[in-house]
Write a structure and sequence with these properties.
There is one protein chain. The protein is an alpha/beta fold. It folds into 2 domains: about 260 residues, 3-Layer(aba) Sandwich (Rossmann fold), CATH 3.40.50; about 210 residues, Rossmann fold, CATH 3.40.50. Helix content is about 40%, strand content about 10%. It is built from 17 helices and 15 strands. The strands form 4 sheets. Strands 9, 10, 11, 12, 13 and 14 form a 6-stranded parallel beta sheet that branches. Helix 15 links the parallel strand 13 and strand 14. Helix 5 packs parallel to helix 6, helix 11 runs parallel beside helix 17 and helix 14 runs parallel beside helix 15. The radius of gyration is 24 Å and the shape is elongated.
Length: about 500
Amino acid sequence: MKTSIKTIGLLVALAMGLASPLSPVQAAEHFWDEIPLSPSTTMPSEVLDDYWNSEFQRVNREVAAAQNTRLVFFGDSITWSWSLGPATGREIWENQFKDHHPINMGNSGDITPVMLHRVARGNLDFPEGRHPKVAVILCGINNFGVTKSAGGKEKWDLGSDCPPEDIAQGQRAIAQVFRRRLPQTRLIMMALLPVADGAKWQKCQRVNAINAKLALESDEVVFVNLQDSFLQPDGTINKALFTDGIHLTKEGYQAWERGISPVIEKFMKAPPLAPVKIMLIGGSATEGLDSSTSYRRHLDGMIRRNGHLSDFVGSRHKHKDGTAEPDSYQFDPDHEGHWGKGSEWIADNMPRLLERNVPDVAVIHLGAEDILANKTEAGPLTDGIIKNIGRVITALRLKNAKVKIVIAQNLPVSGREETCVLLNRKISRLARSSASTLSPVVIAEANQRFEPHHDMGKDDALPNASGARKIAGILSNAIHTLLGPSSNQTTPSHDNH
């Protein structure tokens, strides 16, 4: 019988589940739910620790030079010691994984906030076309112990009282960044391994139980808990597998390898992931002033929670006319929003912008810049905008005859409300006249339920966070209409009580 990756993910979760001795875990979350902010999930603006930075730069160099890397391991000292430092697991590493040209992304003593810094700022910047097929992540144990670094210059609000829920969220945050930055890389999320300290192990079990219940797309991500391979029948750790109650002996690495190799090999043999490429085309509202007020920040998770394997594409990656780095790791930053550029500029440059990125779905949100910049009469002005949107559609179809298109209606522009109403009527007519069976077009009524006094920023030109969420919800529904039912099956992990 042929076994699918989805089935493998479910079997792994069932066979290697965790019975927690603590109180019942909250209702299962979705893998793509938003990450609550806590010390475990807040990415620092910089890291002062010299050792951590040296390992960060080492990984960046190896990633930039990657040629045939199909497998990466990301984590702390347990991962690091596979092949680096004491290299306790080097023999197993070389015997079992060398054909995949692996990169060891371990960093001794690392904690989840610093790990978020690493994955968002370089550790995943593989050359185009050289992304690994599989990534294995094991992290979080150091959040229970590390409170200072860089000789005390950095202080972390972590330690023995760190809530297990926060650590579980930190692990999921890192996993999300992997999936967003490496859309064709399948992911193995490891449960925390047992530790000798009984009180700490109970907290680790709580962390594991939370992530074991995640609803996830098991063709992309599986949660693997190997606790039974590291425990004695009485529930204590197998001392032969540990050097000090936390780190692994050679036999410990052998147990880890045996537990994950079947999943790695299934993922290696699986067909390549084929995310839907989505291009967000527009002006300042698309680019956004910052992450919280950009609809892109919220749209990403909404599409993914609908079960669609997606990848935002475009030549731009920042906010505020390319001057502001994203201040959130919770979305794919690629886009084709051009601050202050009108519809004619977008139409003129669309062929050039499509040279490297050709979308399967295009979201077009144009017109506001023209209305703000021109005092032309409403009729000729809106006719020009519609003509330019039509040119954008033509350029898209020349690159992909089957491109699916969302045209977003315009938000109210203070003092030009009648012009916006007229433009939106013409957008509706354009959508109907330009739609085809091969290349469907739908309207996103982004202006519906939009309250300028509540949903616009102080300058009345760009949405605030509330408005951005509303726009994202409307666009998400339109994209879901085009893509239809999810091709991914959402599968919850399970405890094995």
